[in-house]
Amino acid sequence: MLPPALPEIDAGAGPVLVMLHGGGPGASAVANYHQNLPALTRHFRVVLPDQPGFGGSYRPAEADLDARSITEITVDALLQTLDALGVDRFHLLGNSLGGAAAIATALEAPERVEKLVLMAPGGGWLPFGPTPTEGQKAMFRYYNGEGPTLKKMRDFIGVMTAEPKRWADTAQARYEASLDESHIAFYHAYNAAFAKRHGMDPLWQRVHKIKASTLLLWGRDDRTITLDGAQLMLKQIRDVQLHVFGGCGHWVQLERQAEFERLVTDFLKEH
């Protein structure tokens, strides 16, 4: 049994909302969602786990990543974590890499996931355009060549967001987090495994089996997990709705913070 993911934040009261972060360099639960906690903890017990390889969580070895996908590893770690916290049923929200883990968890343990919120999720997305996308290339480049630099992090955020000048302060913190040597080693192994597997797990083949009521949130200008790939999920998931934000890239929870918090709260509280 692998170590569980570490819950970086467990705050608030009410129905449990688990939020899974994306997979960019220096990513963590708090880096993704800290700005949303004041609004969401008024209504929910919010659990923010760092996924394996990121933040304060453990680093899967190269052999682990060769044997199983990062999504499979994350699902096991997440369910172990929630068991340890005594959480049986929960709402689940995931962005990008975390969106893939959220889809896989909803398929693996449908009796535990009450409602599902997916923000440009990997795996469930089937693009019409070329891959890797511009955002995926930016992630692959970050640790290559001369290694991480503040300029490369600014360039990365420029691809992730529709208005990068608004998020200049984010670059320094993400850059510093990306310098952790164990995270760098994990990222090289993760990218190598990603290439061997030819991308994310093809969860799009099974999204029609999702039982949880699902809200899709997408930035129209997302250059990482592009909006065209949403059509398959919109067609195949039984109980689904889609909200698209113009002038928004890959980080809906940051770029459209107030609308994100309102939509998520209303959706999860709706009977």
List keywords for this structure.
271 residues, alpha/beta, Rossmann fold, seven-stranded mixed beta sheet, 7 strands, monoacylglycerol lipase activity, hydrolase
The total count of strands amounts to: 7
Question: What spatial order of strands do you see in the largest sheet?
Answer: 1-3-2-4-5-6-7
Quickly give the CATH architecture: 3-Layer(aba) Sandwich
User: Low-confidence stretches at least 5 residues in length (pLDDT < 50)?
Assistant: none
Compute the number of helices: 12
Report the radius of gyration as a whole number of Å. Answer: 17 Å
Task: Classify the fold: give the CATH topology.
Answer: Rossmann fold
The succession of helices and strands, N to C, reads EEHHEHHEHEHHHHEHEHH
Keywords: Hydrolase
Organism: Streptomyces dysideae
Domain AB hydrolase-1: 15-256
GO molecular function: monoacylglycerol lipase activity
Report what the structure shows:
The model has no long low-confidence stretch (mean pLDDT 93). β4 (90-95), α5 (97-108) and β5 (113-119) form a beta-alpha-beta unit. 42% of the residues lie in helices and 16% in strands. The protein has twelve helices and seven strands. α4 packs across α5 (97-108) and α7 (150-160) crosses α8. The protein has a single domain (8-269), classed as Rossmann fold, CATH 3.40.50.1820. The termini are far apart. It is of the alpha/beta class. It is globular and about 50 Å long. A seven-stranded mixed beta sheet has the order 1-3-2-4-5-6-7, with helices on both faces.
